[in-house]
Amino acid sequence: MVGSQAIISATFSIVKQCSSLGCFPHVKIIHTSRNIIGQIYVPEMNWILMILCLSVTIGFRSTTLIGHAYGLAVITVMFVTTCLMTLVIIVVWRKNLLLGLLFFFFFGSIEIVYASSCLVKVHEGGWVPLVLALIFMLIMYIWNYGIRKKYEFDIQNQVSMKWLLTLGPSLGVVRVRGMGLIYTELVSGVPSVFSHFVTNLPAFHQIVVFVSIRSIPVPHVQPTERFLLGRIGPKEYRIYRCVVRYGYKDVHETDVNFEDQLVLNMGEFIKNEAKSSASSAASEDSADDRMMVVRTSSHPAVKMVAMVSEIHQDGDRNHSGFQKNIETQNSGSCLNQFQPQRSVRRKQVRFELPESSQMDLSVKEELRELIQAKDAGVAYIMGHSYIKASGSSSLVKKLAINIGFNFLRRNCRGPAVALSIPHTSLIEVGMVYYV
What pTM was computed for the model? Predict the structure, then answer.
């Protein structure tokens, strides 16, 4: 209420970063500016702030009590900032430990004096920020605890490579045309949702990609370092792994742009893997421990051709028929410069192999299958998990998982990646996890 604009902006920013790091339930985040990525709006938090402000105002009905709550909140923030700054001095800046301790004792002693005067006012309104802090810490801890337990379950129950190899290149089912993107939290191994899917359905796609979206604790990730690609099993299995890394301030791409960039990077990975004797030997031995960051080159393995049709505001469509070969390193900039100010342009992208490319026949065949699978269609497969505490768990764990975590999961938004997937291409596989 005292610094409403600062509180609103700070709350939006902190909630977004905590959600990206898996420390807060997923909420709707609206980017209100195309130029300033950090300018966001979180409707749920805005409503919560309004309700809390009205509750405190109506409940206290006194500026004196509100001042006591505000004073304790401010001095607590100052002391926490001093503690975090001490860690920055020692851990991030790598300064002398003595310098960090001197900083802490100098500023901390001053703040403790102010805090001691505020603590005597806890029963006169100062308890409000303490209760709110406890509630939000409890929510964050339960959510992070449930997420970690789910990840540990996936690690312990992942499919062994031996089981995958016994299925053969056909995986024991009919391989149909198309590309299947299986979203998983694992960055190594095969998730259990894949075996659950294969054993219950008689067909699967000819190209399988295990996609893992990772938010790393940096503001931005360069597009050239975003995709980390690898192979699972022998080449004839056509199973790949892709780790897509985003910073907590990066904006996730739409499904169309993501598919195009994924195919381009997979083409570069296939070409680079063929040039590396170590990678070729690892793939023949069915190793699943080699991942590489795919960087663009001046001669891409897969050429993307964009065909843009223009629709003017008056409704007339102008098929100019122009095409432009887009190289991997500047595909985003070229497409953006096509956008006119007073018309709507629809982009259609197709892929083809370079005409004068000197590649091995097996590499060309694999790239051709990749393009055919993309043209046939892309299906998104996601595991819809239900987490429950095992029967031998303690009462506190059952309350945290069965009640707390499941309540938060049911009442918060799904993963950001699921919101950009078209419903006609989404397949959900339900599983129950006992942790």
Answer: 0.67
Over the stretch 206-236, which tens digit does the pLDDT of each residue have?
Answer: 899 999 888 776 778 888 888 899 888 888 8
Q: Distance between CA atoms of 231 and 267, rounded to whole angstroms? A: 13
144: left (phi over 0), alpha (psi -120 to 50) or beta: alpha
- The residue to which tokens 């409890």 are assigned: 138
Given pLDDT bands bounded at 50, 70 and 90, which one contains residue 42? very high
Cα 398–chain centre separation: 28
Question: Nearest-CA neighbor of 66 among 139, 129, 155, 119?
Answer: 129
Neighbours of 383 (CB within 10 A): 20
Between 50 and 353, the higher pLDDT residue: 50
For residue 113, pLDDT beyond 60 = yes
179 vs 282: CA distance, rounded Å? 24
Place of tokens 């938090």: 45
* Phi and psi, residue 77, nearest 5°: -60, -40
Nearest 5 degrees, angle CA 428-CA 244-CA 424? 30
The candidate with the shortest Cα–Cα distance to 252, out of 226, 234, 271, is 226
For residue 413, give the H/E element and its range. none
Cα–Cα distance measured from residue 426 to residue 263, given in angstroms and rounded to the nearest whole number: 19
Mean pLDDT of 288-303: 65
Q: What is the token pair recorded at 118?
A: 């505020």
Residue 82 has pLDDT above 90, yes or no: yes
Beta bridge partners of 384: 430
Q: What would you report as the CA-atom Rg of the chain, rounded to the nearest whole angstrom?
A: 26
